[in-house]
Amino acid sequence: MLEARAHHQLKALLQREGGGQWPHHLSLSRLVARSLRRADHTLVRLVPGTEPSWWISLLVPLALGDEPIALVLNERSRLRLQQVELPRLADAGLALACFEGPHPPPQARVWVLSHRQLVEAWREGRLADRQLVIPEAEGLEAELRQALEVVIKPEHWDQLRRAQPSAEASLLSLHERLSRQLLSRPRNPQRQVALAPEDEAPLRHLLQLLTPLPDPWPSWLAAQGPNWTSWARVNPQLLQWDLHRQPLEPSLVLQGLLENRGCLLVGQIGAGESSCPPLGLQPTVQVELGDPPLADPLPLYAPLRQPLPNSPHFGEHLLEQGRRLVLGQAGFSVILLDDDALRLNLTSGLAAEFGSRVVHQSTAPESNGVVSASWSWWLAHQQRLPLPAQVIVGLLPLATLEDPLTAAQVHQLRQQGRDWFRERLLPDGLTQLQLGVAGLRRSGGRLAILDGRLRGRSWGQQVLSALEPWVALGRLLPH
Q1: How many CB atoms lie under 10 A from the CB of residue 327?
Q2: Prior bond to 386 cis, omega within 30?
Q3: Angle 43-47-50 (CA atoms, 0-180°, nearest 5)?
Q4: Please, are residues 377 and 361 in contact by the beta-carbon 8 Å criterion?
Q5: What are the strands of the beta sheet with 131-135, ordered from one edge?
Q6: Is 166 exposed, middle or buried (0-12, 13-18, 19+ CB in 10 A)?
Q7: 273 has pLDDT over 60
Q8: Strand-by-strand arrangement of the 470-472 sheet
Q9: Distance CA 151, CA 242 (A)
């Protein structure tokens, strides 16, 4: 039986390497082997911050099984597979042959796909009966949304006019009208401007009368309905813009992907009613593999009376508290907030005080350096950086309604009469917070939260509960 073989091989591999510290290697291996053998739908939830050593427990059953598999990886995971895990399997005498490319031969058992390649293969019927294995599934929805995105660039308008010369005057008129609308509207720091369906309606009506259409116009025309939203990314210097269109819920666009097909998802996905499985998965088996209770709680510095982010004094508060937290800190510090202007001002203020120790989104800090970064940058790069001695949260990672995609998702939930903040924004923010401070659990460092909403809003207690176990720091002591 595959479960027994995988258990035996993994146990021997871990003993040869000196034993893995993660306590669930053998449990995950058995779950993966069982899912492959039964071709069922399995969801394995790892607690946020789990070390990536769990990968070997996923791959050993894949190397020993006979089932055709589509292994769906983002670029970071693909590099880890190639550079770390496959050599590790080879040293243990386990060969995992992985085919990469759009058209695998029939004998290729494990087909490695990006999320965009997965969408294309499914639409073209090239997946056949392959089971899906998707590690790091906490980012699956966002990856699939990017894979399904349709982008119209300035050169696509030129191609369309050349393909349909009879409609050139109408197309030029529509493009000019959209340009005036987009360049005159206020935009967020990412230079994004939301587009309503009525803004796109004249262009859509015209395209429905024109055939044939060059790519990607047919895809843009097909991407319609209440599950899709559009925005433009504006370049005011060049007076140009790109048109973006993405689905709010990728699972609705990819209905049928999981029918008559085994699927295994493994990811750092928080449990609870508000945390739904990606892809609308209805798992036959759902298991949470947590870490053992921590002996030492996380030191948390979060003063009771702090200004709210919309206060005119909030920037001064961040700079004053940032100085106190960095002063006397001998280890590596990270400051996290998503407001670009606020972050750059804070970085320059701290650099004036502490010099070259303070850098902005750099993967080569000094040993006692201070890296100021957005949450997305830190989550993408933290494995390339040393474990932090302290993490300073300037702003909690709650999505802003200035983002057109977030605003469209919130609007949809409002129309359904649902609590958009506690169903969407807060759970996503808590997951990012747990992932962002996971290194502190291993380094024994401290966490500081300078966002006044932690103590000033009713939902702040949920944030504190997500950080358990923690112990309050009443005053700062040098480390």
Answers
A1: 11
A2: no
A3: 110
A4: yes
A5: 98-100, 110-113, 69-72, 131-135, 263-267, 41-46, 285-289
A6: exposed
A7: no
A8: 358-360, 370-373, 333-336, 390-393, 446-449, 298-301, 470-472
A9: 7
Which residues does 447 contact at the CB level (< 8 Å), separation at least 6? 298, 299, 300, 301, 390, 391, 393, 437, 440, 467, 470
pLDDT digits (tens, 9 = 90+) for 214-223: 999 999 999 9
150-152 β-sheet, strand order: 150-152, 240-247, 228-235, 192-195
- End-to-end alpha-carbon separation of the chain, Å? 53
Contact 445, 329 (CB under 8 A): no
3-state secondary structure of 195: strand
Largest CA distance in the chain: 74
C-alpha closest to that of 130 among 105, 102, 110 = 110
Question: Cα(104)–Cα(113) distance, rounded to whole angstroms?
Answer: 10
- Give CA–CA dist 453/47, Å, rounded: 25
Q: pLDDT, tens digit, for every residue of 79-117?
A: 999 999 999 999 888 889 999 988 888 888 999 999 999
Q: Which two tokens stand for residue 366?
A: 């000094």
Separation of alpha carbons 460 and 256, rounded Å: 39
The per-residue pLDDT for 190 is 82
Q: What is the DSSP string of 134-168?
A: EESGGGHHHHHHHHH-EEE-HHHHHHHHHH-GGGH
- Do 394 and 340 contact (CB within 8 A), yes or no? no
What 3-state class would DSSP assign to 359? strand
Q: What is the pLDDT of residues 361-397, one digit of tens each?
A: 999 898 899 999 999 999 989 888 999 999 999 999 9
Which pLDDT belongs to residue 275?
57
Record the pTM.
0.89
- Mean pLDDT value of segment 340-344: 93
Give me the count of residues in the chain: 479
| Residues in CB range of 270: below 8 A, 6 or more apart | 45, 48, 427, 430, 431, 434, 466
Continuous segment of H or E residues that includes residue 173: helix 168-184
Token pair belonging to 122: 């499914």
**Beta-carbon neighbour count of residue 49 at 10 Å?**
16
What is the residue type of 153?
K
Bond from prior residue into 478 cis (ω within 30 degrees of 0)? no
Q: Crossing angle of helices 314-326/340-354, nearest 10°?
A: 40
Which residue, chain included where needed, has tokens 């035996």? Answer: 8
Taking the C-alpha atoms of residue 21 and residue 291, their distance in angstroms, rounded to an integer, is 11
- Give yes or no for a contact between 412 and 248, defined as CB atoms under 8 angstroms apart: yes
